[in-house]
Amino acid sequence: MLTYLKANGVLFCLKDHPNMAKPKQQVPERTRPAFHRISPVNINGAPGQRLMIVLRTRGCEYAAKNDGGCTVCGFANHALPGIGDQGILDQLTWALEELPLDGVDEIDLLTLGSFLNENEIAAPVRAELLGMIAGLGGVRRVSFESRSEYVTAAKLNQSRAILGDRTVEFGIGLESADDHVRNHIIRKGLTRERFERVVATLAQTGLDLLVYLLIKPPHLGEAQAIADAVASVAYVAEVAARHGVRARMALEPVFVAPNTYLERVFQRGEYRLVNLWSVVEVILKTHALGNIFVGLSDEDLARNRTTGSCPACQDRLVAEIERFNHTLDVSRLRELDCPCRATYLADRESGRI
Q1: Is 291 helix (H, G, I), strand (E, B) or coil?
Q2: Measured between alpha carbons, how far is 203 from 200 in angstroms, rounded to an integer?
C-alpha cells in the first residue's frame, strides 16, 4: 500500500513504515517500475507536481558495450535482461492504475538507458507508452530522455504528435560542460558538438530541452564541483538561447550507487559526498541563468550514501530545496544558516573537502 502526505500544498511519497499493513500478495517485480516518486516541480512558471517513473528494461546498451558505461550510474542494478515488450508496458499500466494521479501536472517517463533506442524500447512500445500518457487529463508536461546517438527528428515529431498540445521535453545527460570531466571522469561518450546537434534538432521539432548536470562527480573537490556546475549551467543556457530552445537544467547531486566505479572509489575513502551547502550555493549562483531544478531522488540506489549536511539542518535544507523546485523562489535559501556552515566553508577554503 502506497502512503502519501500532503503538506503546504505539496504531495510527498512516504516510505513504508515497519508497522504499516503490507499487501497479502506482492506485485511481481516485472510489473512494477524500478522507481517512482511524486515531488514538487515548476512548469513554465507555475507550481505543479511531478510524477517520475523509471521503467525496468533490458538495461543501457551503451553501458553493456562500454565496460559498464558511466562511472556514477547504477541503473544496471534495476535491469531485467529477459524482459519483453509487454513487461515494459505492464509497468506503466501499474503506475497509472495504482499511483495517485490527482494533481499530477508532469510525468517524467524514464528508462534504464535511452527511451529512443529501439534495442531497449521498441518503436511500437514507445508509441504505446506515450499514448497511455496522452489519454490522461491534467498532465501539462511530459519528459523522456535518451543518449544523443538515438535522436532523430522523425522520432521527436512522432512523440509530439502522440502527446498533442502538452509541453514535450527531451532530456539528455550532459553531466558537465567540461570535456575532461564528462568524457574521462564520467565516461559519458558525448562531445559538445553532438550535444549541440541535438539542441538544433529540438529547435526544428519544437520540443523543450532538459539537461542533467552533476554536482560533484568523482575526483572533484567541493569548490571545483561548484565551479563546474555553475559553468555547465551557463554553457547550456547559452546553447539553448542560441538555438531558440526553451531549456531546463536538472542539477543532480551525485550519490553512490552500488556496483559502480564511484562506489569503489568511495569505499577506498577517495570520494566525499557533496555537501548540501554546496547544492544551495549552486542554486544561488545559477537560478538567474535559466530554469533550474534540483534532483534529490536516488532511484532507490544510494543506500543512504547521498548528499547531506549536519543532523541539525539537513532536513531543513532538503525542504527548502524542494520548495525552490516548486516556486523557483530563492529568498528562503538566502536566509538559511547553521553553525555547521562555517565549518563547511573553512574546510572548502582549505581544500580539505
Answers
A1: strand
A2: 5
* Helices 222-243 + 192-205 axis angle, to 10: 40
- Give the separation between CA 313 and CA 335, rounded to whole angstroms: 13
Domain coverage including residue 258: 3-350
Q: What are phi and psi of 52, to 5 degrees?
A: -100, 125
Task: Report which DSSP code applies to 303.
Answer: T
Q: Could you report the per-residue pLDDT of 3-23, keeping only the tens digit for each?
A: 433 433 434 343 333 333 333
CATH number for the domain harbouring residue 41? 3.20.20.70
Beta carbons of 261 and 218 less than 8 angstroms apart: yes
With a threshold of 0.85, does the pTM exceed it? yes
pLDDT digit string, tens, across residues 86-120: 999 999 999 999 999 999 999 999 999 999 999 99
User: What is the total count of domains within the chain?
Assistant: 1
What's the rounded Cα separation, in Å, for the pair 83 and 163? 26
Task: Give the C-alpha separation, 178 to 158, whole Å.
Answer: 33
pLDDT for the residue 139: 97
Q: Which grid cell sits at 231?
A: 559553468
CA dihedral 105, 111, 115, 120 (to 10 degrees): -150
Q: How far apart are CA 22 and CA 11, in angstroms?
A: 22
Cα angle at 210 between 207 and 211, to 5 degrees?
135
